[in-house]
Amino acid sequence: MKLNKKMIMLCIWVLSLLMTGCSAENSEKDTHNKETKGNEPQTVKIDEVDWNIDENIVDEKRCVVLDYTNNSNCTIVDFELSFKAKNDITDKEKEKFYQDIQKSFEFSDDDMSELKEKEISMSTGSERVVNPGESVDKVRCYYYSGYYYLNDISHYNLMQPDIATIKYISDGNVYTEYYDFISKKYSTEDKTEKAVQWSNYDIGNEVDKPEAEMIKVDLDDEDLFKFDVCGMSKDQYDQYVDACKEKGFTDEKNQKDDRYSANNEQGYSITLEYDYDDYEIEVRVSKEE
């Protein structure tokens, strides 16, 4: 059957309408998907954290340390790793491990008996603010959950990674994500907290609110306000001390390179300390009796 010219033109017109409708519908779907995706918080995956454990010199001593680079698009505010003994560790390796521990830290036989009841483990971590592309180095590693430094790389070689904890900032909130190296699965804490916190009382008006990616409030009431300003250099600490002086805290009680304490005429006292390890300013504001 032959189609006349009018019939051909009609078919083309109908097809063009159908194609235009499909295109518009797909465009709306794409826009919706982009908007939905844009509203979801970003995440940080373990392969976006380039970490390494090795020997290095810290304070003129050889020790085992963590280095890592943040290759994600989020600011990491806490990165922790826990390790447990490899599945194929031998009794001979365990015995040498315990002998080294007892000799290094002068543990008694009773101490060692108690220690041997625990699973062999190690840990490390840093609460520094690490922006995308930045790195942290020479973070000390510990035996078990902390306290004793790990100084022997042969002991680390008996370990395998167990769990990674990653805290990061997304849409103004701090999220906590865990990665299980054994099951290779992620889990995220339901609870989040604001990255930048501040006092709910008038005492917060006595000091300037620093410009920082993260401020953690430790204690907040009418007469006492304690907070940590994270990710601050020593120069930024010095600048904040000057800002507190301009705010009226000039009756100095104590001033050192990394500590400042003073009163103001309104009856408030302030103490600032700088933490060189975590790059934090610890601030305490209180109403004087």
UniProtKB/TrEMBL annotation:
Q: Does the keyword Ligase apply?
A: no
Keyword Signal attributed: yes
Give the residue range of the signal peptide: 1-24
Q: Name one Pfam family in it.
A: DUF6591
User: Which keywords accompany this UniProt record?
Assistant: Signal
Domain DUF6591, residue spans: 194-284
The family database entries (InterPro entries) matched by this protein are listed as:
DUF6591 (IPR046526)
Name assigned to this protein: DUF6591 domain-containing protein
Q: Which organism is it from?
A: Coprococcus aceti
